[in-house]
Specification:
Length: 419
C-alpha cells in the first residue's frame, strides 16, 4: 500500500506509513491516533498525505460514541491520491483496528480468517451475472457469463499467511536440526499450521484440506461437511492452458510427492491472479478452494491465490527478494519472513522483509528494489531505514538492489549458530 502521512510541527517533520499504522497493535494504534489528535485540535500540527508529488491536506477527528479516531481526507479529494494509496478508495483510516479485520488471532493462537462466502462456501448462484470477454482455445473472443469472486486477493492473503507462518515456525523450532525445503514446509502446513487457521467458527483448513492422492477424495471432504464448504488445496503451480468457454486447465504438482494433477478454473480467475503479481517467473504455490465436479472430470477451483516463493518455499514479493532468500537458504541461515509484529512491539507496525535469528542480536533485513525515480517508494525507504536502524535490541541490514549494487556481505553467525 502506497501512502505516508507527513506530520509537521514547529521545528519538526515526522512521517508515518499507512501500512505501519494499520499493522500496529490496537494499544499502539490508539495511543498514536490520540496523541496526533491532541496536536491537531490545538492547531499545533499540519497533516499531509505524501502519496504523490503534491501535498494533500488531511485531518483527524474523534468520535466519542465509539472512542475512535479517524484520519480523513477532505471531501472531494480522493481522486487526488495515488491509485495505490489507502485514501484513493477510502476516505478514512480508523483507530478502531478494523483493518486487521480479515485475520485475527484468538487467545489460543489460532488465526481466524474472514473470507467472502463465495470463495469457500457452496452458495446459491447470484442472479447478477458479469459479462466478460474471454479468448477460447483458438484465440477468438467470445462473450460469456460468469460469476466472478470478489475475494481472490483475500485468498492470496490467506495462502501467503499460511506459507509464511509455516516457514517461520519451522525455522524457529526445527531450523537448527534440519533445514527446510519445499517438501518439509508443505509437511509443516499439513501437520501443524493448517490446524491453527480457521475459516469458519469450528472449521479449520486442516479439516478441509486435500492432502494428495486421488482427487476423488475432494468429494468426500465436501460430503463430510454436508457440502456446505469446498475443499482446500495447496499445490505447486506447474502451468495452465486455455480451454473453451472461458475455462483453463491447471497443472499442479504435489510439493512432497512431485505427482502432477489436473484441475480447471475460470480463465478470468487465473489471469487475475497473475496480473496481481510483482514477480514474473516461478516457482509459485497455488492455493484455494476446489470442488469435485463429476467422475472423469478434473476438480474445479472456485477461488485461488498465487504466491511466488524462492527455491526453498519462502514467500517472496520481488526477484531481488528471491535472490536474497536463495542466498540465505543456501547458507542455511535461520531467517524468518515475519507476517505480523506481535512479538516485536518495538517495530510499531513496521513489518520488515525478514529477520535473522542466528546473529548476536536479531537482525532486521530489508531489500529495496525500485528505481530512484519512484520518489514515494524512496520516501518509504528513508522512513524504514531511519527507524529500524535506531532500535537498540536489533541489528539492521539492507540491500539497495535498485541501483544494481551487489549483495552486501551477509550478517555473521553468532558463535553457537549452525554451520
Amino acid at each position: 500500500m502506497n501512502g505516508m502521512l507527513e506530520i509537521t510541527t514547529v521545528g519538526n517533520v515526522t512521517h508515518l506509513l499507512y501500512d505501519q499504522l494499520i499493522n500496529m497493535s490496537q494499544e499502539q494504534q490508539h495511543a498514536t491516533f490520540r496523541d496526533l489528535h491532541e496536536l491537531y485540535r490545538h492547531k499545533k500540527t499540519q497533516l499531509n498525505c505524501k502519496c504523490t508529488n503534491v501535498d494533500i491536506d488531511m485531518m483527524i477527528i474523534y468520535r466519542e460514541i465509539s472512542n475512535s479516531y479517524y484520519i480523513k481526507t477532505f471531501p472531494k479529494q480522493s481522486s487526488k491520491h495515488d491509485k495505490k494509496c489507502h485514501f484513493h478508495n477510502k476516505n478514512s483510516l480508523s483507530s478502531a483496528n478494523e483493518y486487521i479485520g480479515n485475520t485475527q488471532e484468538d487467545s489460543d493462537g489460532n488465526l481466524r480468517v474472514q473470507l467472502p462466502a463465495i470463495d469457500f462456501k457452496k452458495v446459491k448462484p447470484s442472479k447478477k451475472k458479469t459479462t466478460i470477454k474471454s479468448k477460447d482455445a483458438h484465440g477468438t473472443s467470445d462473450s460469456i457469463e460468469a460469476s466472478v469472486s470478489v475475494g481472490t486477493s483475500t485468498i492470496h492473503q490467506l495462502v501467503r499467511k499460511l506459507i509464511t507462518r509455516a516457514w517461520d515456525d519451522y525455522i524457529f523450532f526445527k531450523g537448527k536440526e534440519r533445514y527446510p525445503d519445499i517438501g518439509r514446509i508443505y509437511s509443516q502446513i499439513v501437520k501443524r499450521t493448517s490446524k491453527k487457521i480457521y475459516v469458519a467458527k469450528n472449521v479449520s483448513l486442516d479439516q478441509l484440506m486435500y492432502k494428495g492422492g486421488k482427487v476423488g477424495s475432494i468429494y468426500y471432504i465436501e460430503k463430510a461437511h454436508k457440502h456446505k464448504y469446498h475443499a482446500f488445496a495447496l499445490l505447486k503451480y506447474a502451468g495452465h492452458s486455455d480451454l473453451q468457454n472461458g475455462m483453463s486447465e491447471l497443472i499442479l504438482e504435489h510439493p512432497s510427492t512431485l505427482i502432477k494433477m489436473k484441475f480447471t478454473v475460470n480463465t478470468i480467475i487465473i489471469e487475475s491472479a497473475f496480473s496481481g503479481l510483482t514477480v514474473s517467473e516461478g516457482p509459485y504455490i497455488l492455493g484455494g478452494f476446489v470442488t469435485y465436479t463429476e467422475q472423469n472430470n478434473p476438480p474445479h477451483f472456485i477461488s485461488l491465490g498465487l504466491v511466488p516463493i524462492n527455491d526453498y518455499g519462502v514467500p517472496i514479493e520481488s526477484s531481488y527478494e528471491r535472490f536474497l532468500y536463495n542466498a540465505l537458504c543456501h547458507q542455511k541461515r535461520l531467517v524468518q519472513r515475519i507476517h505480523d509484529t506481535k512479538y516485536h512491539p518495538a517495530w510499531k507496525g513496521l513489518i520488515p522483509d525478514g529477520l535473522l535469528i542466528d546473529t548476536v542480536k536479531p537482525t532486521i533485513i530489508e531489500v529495496f528494489g525500485m528505481s530512484e525515480s519512484q520518489t514515494h517508494y524512496h520516501q518509504h525507504r528513508k522512513v524504514k531505514i531511519d527507524y529500524l536502524s535506531s532500535l537498540p535490541n536489533y541489528d539492521f541490514w539492507y540491500w539497495d538492489a535498485f541501483d544494481k549494487k551487489t549483495l552486501p556481505k551477509l550478517p555473521p553467525l553468532r558463535q553457537n549458530g549452525i554451520d
